[in-house]
Amino acid sequence: MLVDLDGTLMATDTISERVAGAIRKVERFVPVSIATGRRESDVRRYANCLGLKAPQICNGGATILDPVSGQHIWNSHMPEARARAVIDLLDRNDISFIATHPQGDAESIAAISHWDLTRISGMDIPESKADEIVEAFDGCEEIYIVKVYLHYNGWWAVDFTASGVHKGRSAQKLADLMRVDTSDFIAAGDSFNDFPMLEVSGYRIAMASAPQEIKDMAHYIAPRVEDDGLAVAIEEVVLPRLRVHGV
Questions:
Q1: What is the model's pLDDT at position 245?
Q2: Which of 171, 176, 226 is nearest to 201 (CA)?
Q3: What residues contact 135, with CB distance under 8 A and at least 6 apart?
Q4: Which end of the chain has fewer CB atoms at under 10 Å, N or C?
Q5: CA–CA–CA angle 234, 168, 139 (5° rounding)
Q6: What is the C-alpha to C-alpha distance for residues 25 and 233, in angstroms, rounded to an integer?
Q7: Helix or strand or coil: residue 174?
Q8: What are the tens digits of pLDDT across the range 50-86?
Q9: pTM of the entire predicted model
Q10: Are 106 and 112 in contact (CB under 8 A)?
Q11: Tens-digit pLDDT profile for residues 29-39
Q12: How confident is the prediction for the chain on average, in pLDDT?
């Protein structure tokens, strides 16, 4: 099972006891992987909190890692020229950012010591400005761009990764590692960056707060994250499906 983090697995920075308990029940049947735009340190923290041992997806799909050792199982990098252009645009627009590379993260140009960037996220942006940032790179074939609603503060982020690198691509990589097909995956998400992951998965769960495009592709729409919607989805449809299929 693949689960988005913010807006799906949790509303703020804490996973509720009901949701955590539901995830642990799923883990008795199948591996659970978080798939998020967040950095790897966050993913390891929440995966360890839930006791997840399967490979986890972070950096918007640009990194798959072992949550126990922290070792990168798969990674991708943006072309340096494009990464520099993205950072320059964000800096000129006075937009805060997180730039991630295999050695760590940077939140200012001066702090970027390596330009083999895995992901860049422009943070805490009004939606209209986020649309402008996306439009500025329209037609650029070397990078993948998606805007993401930040459920915890009501602002938006714009995530940049290498071309073709997103949660759907990492879901395929994960399926290859597990020697299964992505059609075997159950996936849950709430934002535009979850679209590729949901698209390749066999069963799709959208949260109540998801954009209509996400809801339209879903097999099941869960209640709000504030109402432990993921736990409801697990209790009502995920566990029954796993038991019926004899997993």
A1: 64
A2: 171
A3: none
A4: C
A5: 140
A6: 12
A7: helix
A8: 999 999 999 999 999 999 999 999 999 999 999 999 9
A9: 0.92
A10: yes
A11: 999 999 999 99
A12: 94
